[in-house]
Known about the structure:
The chain contains eleven helices and ten strands. The protein is α+β, with helices and mostly antiparallel strands. The strands form three sheets. The protein has a five-stranded antiparallel sheet. Strands 6-8-9 form a three-stranded antiparallel sheet. It has a two-stranded antiparallel ribbon with strand order 7-10. The longest helix has 23 residues, at about 265-285. The protein starts with a helix and ends in a 38-residue tail after the last helix. Mean pLDDT is about 85; it is low at about 335-355. It holds the Pfam family APH. GO terms for molecular function: transferase activity. It comes from Phycicoccus endophyticus.
Amino acid sequence: MDRSPSFLAALASAAVPGLDPVSVEAPPSLPGQSFDIAFVEDDEHRRWVVRAPRTEMAGAEMDRSVALLALLARRLPFAVPAPKGFVAVEGCGRAAVYPYLPGHPLELASLPAGPGLAAELGRALGAVHNLDPALFEEAGLPTYDADAYRTRRLAELDRAAETGRVPTALLTRWEGALEDVALWRFAATPTHGDLTGEEVLAVFGDERDSASGRVKAMTGWEDAKVADPADDFAALVAEASPDAVETVLEAYAHVRVERPDPNLLVRARLGSELALLARLMDALGRKDVPAVEVLSTQLRRLDDAVHAAEAEDDYRRTSLAPVAVRTRPTPPPALVVDDDDEEELPDVSEPRRGLG
């Protein structure tokens, strides 16, 4: 059952001493969401965000992310949520209240290529992935190396296959990519884990000029972990134009401590497809029949789209084949000649005579 905005405002007042709500608004509730959220303004014109978990599992995830955020606050070039108070919520752990972070959520589909916001996003992602993994471990967040993460993904695919709702061709496509170890050679990094445009808040020096945009904050850290850096590119490759993706990746590579692996975007493409599968499994777990039917239809459409792309010139954008890494041939070692031995070397400009 959804909690009313007035109830969430009361939670905010109880969590933060001196917070006296005068207005409250809440975004529309979505099926399967893990938190109830409301925006509260107090009598001092301060704005606050209330997040109340709907389940005990969501509450545990939020507690872990709160521990991480305390460690990240001074280590990133943008803001992260900083809770100022908590209040117990029966059966779900506790709700968190933190100051409202200004900014506009990114619309990845209209993200412009070139200098400006796309490059800013790339640098912001690089800053996250450059973090020390020990910080995530200290906060009690999951840590996977490349092979363990690939194995985990395979297990998730096996469970989805048992539902009978995934097109056979898609199962074959995903299984082939997950079993191709050439795709899964990456250095595990700290990741946001569920990065969409909604979690990236941008501000602009000039609202009419995208080049003036910068990343102000990142929210929604409940799925943070040490794992595949490609996860944070999944929504980007699914929604943004190829030119915008290229700009983001170029800026990202420029700031990264370690060079991105050549298959990062291929795994991101795979991740964007598997995200649809994860939503299907979540809907099945909730026994949400209408959502299951919608997501099953979307999977069939994805299957059709992949087949159509494979038959056309757009195959490059949908392929899950590993990127061929070109290597330059190693030149033969240079001949080192000692000056003292120079006279003993034969003259090879003409055939030698008198040897046979």
